[in-house]
Design goal:
Number of strands: 19
Low-confidence stretches: none
Distance between the termini: 23 Å
Number of domains: 4
Strand content: 15-25%
Largest sheet: 8 strands, antiparallel
Number of helices: 15
Shape: globular
Helix content: 25-40%
Length: about 450
């Protein structure tokens, strides 16, 4: 079957666009998610929309599974291939097609790195706000497929808020154009929104029209050190109650602070219960005023110390406390399970405390960091996947964390997606009607079920 499929793909692509060796296939057997591995039958590397369409037409006719992939940075198993299937890797569709400054629009192919999108916008005096933690290596297509968030989500929103139009190749090879450069367009259903966050289950995105915004004139960075997590959470609520919306409101718990300080030597006291990273941007006078207001609110709210960056370089150094959190934690164990739950801001301290209690009860090491401004937490379990008994304890801890997040009115994923890793937990959040609607939407776009089968739901 695999040999016949490879021969047929050979009629559509050059030899260097098809990978079949065991060494190559092992590279594409996993994404950034721990513990999930499955070799595909082959890897296809199309270089145009039309090649994508021809590949999907063939696979749909043969009922061969197709899993679309970018850089493979996903953390929910959404790019783990199906048995006997094709990995459709889009990294060679990597051109920025247009930067239209007059309409504040950038048009890109899906394989463009997110950092390149941000850099191109900046070079034109514009700003692309979404900044997932993997911004330097993730692709914009993967960001759209997972509706990625990032550190600036509180003020600027997530990827969905910057998608104006998409070109999508459907499962049978048909090409759909949805959306455009218009700021207003209510003609028909908002089809593009179905593909944002669809995790490659409804179609393959081959062109993306992105909204840009004017670049902020100024930015200031603050770091607040707290002896109690509840005080840090209360500070976040107080800042927003004072009608200040920072571009960044991030936090680290004690375990993460210890790891970051050991790794990056920023000068953080390791006996803190929490660190808040706070950034404001906009017009210079407003930024200066809000910086002073936030510093005062943090001190009134119980911050042991508030550090205000005196320069852009110092601001980057302070911000590195948050941006190095994952890599710092990853140094401590062979396996890192980086999770992603979101709760209402009012329940943040409660959720963080519960994660710590669950870790202690199941005897697993866990550090928590995340986007306190929008309630998105990243409990990070440090373990060893070769230890079956330890991994069983991690799984039990995760089940309890997801269930508690839903109980608090939250969600099992704020930005990483469902993928293979979280699909057992999706029904408890969506319920039977919600799950039925998902399946009906999937069946209408992909009746033979070839696109990322088994992802999100069976």
């Amino acid at each position: 079957m695999a040999d016949a499929l490879t021969r047929e793909l050979g009629g559509l692509l050059r030899e260097d666009q098809i990978l079949t060796s065991p060494e190559d296939l092992s590279v594409y057997a996993f994404d950034g998610t721990a513990m999930l591995h499955q070799r595909p039958a082959c890897v296809a590397l199309p270089e145009s929309r039309d090649e994508v369409a021809r590949i999907l037409t063939l696979c749909n006719e043969r009922e061969v599974p197709v899993v679309t992939r970018g850089s493979g940075t996903g953390l929910a198993g959404g790019a783990v291939p199906s048995q006997g299937g094709v990995v459709l890797c889009l990294v060679r569709l990597n051109r920025i097609l247009e930067l239209d400054a007059a309409n504040l629009v950038l048009v890109a192919e899906p394989g463009v790195l997110t950092q390149k999108v941000a850099d191109e916008a900046q070079a034109a005096g514009l700003f692309y706000p979404p900044d997932p933690g993997s911004i330097k290596i993730s692709t914009i297509g993967g960001n759209v497929a997972n509706n990625s968030g990032g550190l600036r989500g509180l003020k600027y929103g997530v990827t969905r808020d910057y998608i104006m139009g998409l070109e999508v190749v459907l499962a049978d090879g048909q090409i759909l154009e949805t959306g455009n450069k218009c700021v207003k367009d209510v003609a028909g259903f908002a089809l593009k929104d179905l593909f944002i966050g669809s995790e490659g289950m409804l179609g393959v995105i081959t062109r993306i029209t992105l909204k840009l915004v004017p670049a902020p004139e100024s930015k200031k960075t603050l770091l607040g050190l707290y002896d109690e997590m509840t005080a840090a959470a209360a500070t976040v609520s107080a800042i927003i109650a004072n009608k200040i919306i920072p571009c960044t409101l991030e936090f680290l718990d004690r375990t993460t602070i210890e790891c970051v300080e050991s790794h990056a030597k920023i000068g953080l006291p390791t006996d803190c219960a929490a660190v808040l990273l706070m950034e404001v941007d906009g017009h210079a006078a407003q930024v200066e005023e809000q910086t002073q207001q936030i510093a005062a609110i943090a001190r009134q709210g119980g911050a042991r110390e508030v550090r205000v960056a005196a320069s852009a370089a110092e601001g980057l150094q302070l911000a590195s406390a948050r941006r190095t959190a994952f890599s710092a934690l990853a140094r401590l164990a062979p396996t890192v399970v980086l999770e992603d739950v979101t709760v209402p801001r009012s329940a943040l301290a409660q959720m963080v405390g519960y994660v710590q209690e669950v870790g202690q009860r199941h005897q697993v090491k866990v550090g928590t960091f995340g986007h306190m401004g929008d309630g998105n937490l990243h409990p990070t379990f440090l373990c060893d996947e070769r230890d079956e008994e330890e991994m069983a304890r991690v799984e039990r801890a995760l089940e309890e964390v997801f269930a508690y997040a839903v109980e608090l009115g939250g969600t099992i994923t704020g930005e990483h997606g469902v993928g293979l890793a979280k699909k057992p937990f999706l029904p408890q959040q969506l319920g039977p009607v919600g799950m039925d609607i998902l399946r009906r939407v999937k069946a209408s776009f992909d009746p033979k079920g070839i696109l990322n089968p088994g992802n999100m739901f069976d």
